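User: Heat-inducible transcription repressor HrcA. Structure?
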Amino acid sequence: MSEQSRILSDMTTRSREVFRRVVESYLETGGPVGSRTLTRAMDEKVSAATIRNVMQDLEYLGLLDSPHVSAGRVPTELGLRLFVDGLLETGDLPDDERHAIESSMSSNSQDVSDVLDQVGQALSGLTHGASLVLTPKREAPIKHIEFVSLSPDRALVVLVFADGSVENRLFTPPVGQTPSSMREAANFLNALMQGRTLSDLRTVMNREIAARRQEIDKLAQDLIDSGLAAWQTDADNTDRLIVRGRANLLGEAGDIERIRTLFDDLERKRDIAKFLELTDEGDGVRIFIGSENKLFSLSGSSLVVSPYMNADRRIIGAVGVIGPTRLNYGRIVPIVDYTAQLVGRMVSDRN
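Assistant: Predicted structure:
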């Protein structure tokens, strides 16, 4: 059981109702909710003092916060997350909103980008937030690739295709990568481009890795057979050759140095292969609240996003809405979900 599920299951019916009403009021008004206001809204008749005690308990759990003394309570980011994951109720999409989304895709334009631009405008108009539309990934010959480090856990890859079009993709880089290692990876891949697609590059990298591994195995085998070295597999499944002291006295130093060089080369190629393999994961509507979302945490925003798929059920892009943390999630989630379904259908039909 997750920590959030445990907190919810431990709540009494009363504390759950108090928490839900505080969050719903905050999402509607943006302001704190006091105990006297809640006494008039509760299903059961309880005193303001009782409600204050419940709110103090919820504050102790980190779900509510008090912006000013005696000013009522507002939900914290943890509280919003708990509400969205465990208590959020989404309604059916009204006919007028459904029609507005469908109309945005009725363009006769053959350019999918034009249609997705109209979809973005429709989403912004309906939700009064900023729309986010990630276009389908292309599998076309690439002219140039560049990796840009944005933060320790966020990076951007810039792909320049042979026809001159440019595509930017956000990804989480492998742990320990630096801006300089990303530049080295880009330089290595650019030397291999020659009109290859990303799939082609992955094939080339896997071939290089297999060749290096075979070369290492061949050089190391004599040392292992003579008892001068042994393979050791770490917890992360990384193989290491452990060389025993006598080997350096018996003239095999040249082979050992060659193996060490090959290992370094193998690790660099594995890192580059990881860059190529990073792809979007997940299914369904995802909601990122406040600091959970590294791109928008400085402005205290939330992102409601849903991937869309092609006919083969493969994720090829995403649509979403960016707004304040007090978004009307119950209304916006079904809008984003329905839009993603229609966009996936539209892209599949046009392809």
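Confidence is low (pLDDT under 50) at residues 240-253, 279-283. DSSP finds eleven helices and eleven strands in the chain.
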